[in-house]
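Record now logged for everyone:
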Amino acid sequence: MSWAWEHDPNEEHVIDGAPPALIASVEKRADELVRAAEALYLDGTTHQGVSPKGENVLVPGGMFLCQVIPRHERVYIMQITCW
């Protein structure tokens, strides 16, 4: 398994009519978060500690809520909010 991001519970629920420009900003920032998590947790599948807290991330036009789960090697995008 390798690090990636995905929508939780699914893309349709998370995106829910968000404008394409906001979605592109979220995806770009999610890619950055994946690279950072991959560097921090070299082998996430063996991580024994507590997962980091979820965080709100600001992007142009809105924000999104995400959660890093090292054991899954995933950054989960759980909600997108547009202004």
